[in-house]
Amino acid sequence: MKTKFLLSKARCAFDVGAVAVISSGRQWAPAAALVVAMALVLAPDALVAGTGGTEFDNVWTWLVDVTQGTLGRILAGSMVLVGVVGGIARQSLMAFATGIGGALGLNYAPDIIDAVMVAHLPVY
Questions:
Q1: What are phi and psi of 93, to 5 degrees?
Q2: Residue whose C-alpha is closest to residue 67's, from 114, 105, 119, 115
Q3: If exposure means fewest CB atoms within 10 Å of the residue's CB, which of 43, 53, 54, 123 is most exposed?
Q4: Whole-angstrom Cα distance, residue 27 to residue 96?
Q5: CA-to-CA separations, 50 to 3, 7, 47, 117, in angstroms, rounded
Q6: Stated pTM of the model
Q7: Nearest CA to 23 among 32, 14, 12, 36?
Q8: Contact 79/70 with Cβ under 8 angstroms?
Q9: Which residues 6+ apart lie within 8 Å of 16 measured at CB?
Q10: Could you tell me whether strands 10-15 and 2-7 are parallel, antiparallel, or unpaired per DSSP bridges?
Q11: Could you give the 3-state DSSP secondary structure of residue 25?
C-alpha cells in the first residue's frame, strides 16, 4: 500500500513499513555544491575569522562603558523598579525576577561576550 504526501515542493512516497524516499527534483544542487567547494579551496585567506579586526574596538569600548557605567546602572535600576511594580500589579514574584534577570544580564553581558569571544586553546 502506497500513500503519497506533498511536502513543500518535495515529493515523498511512503510505503507502509518502509523508509520514506524524498526527491526534490533539483538538478542544480550538485553544481552549486561544486561551486561552493571550489570557492572554499581557492579563497582560504578570506575564511580566517577572529584575527585582527580592531576597527570596531572603539564601539565595543563605548558599549561596555555604557552598560557597566552610570547609564547601565540607571537602566538596571529601572528594570528592577519596573519588575517590582509589575510584581505588585500581578501579585507575583515572576515580574520582579524578570527585572532582576534583565538587570544582571545588562551588567554582565559584556564580560560574558568577552569570555566567549576570546576563548581559545593554547598553541604549543
A1: -85, -10
A2: 105
A3: 123
A4: 56
A5: 50, 40, 10, 8
A6: 0.49
A7: 12
A8: no
A9: 1, 3
A10: antiparallel
A11: coil
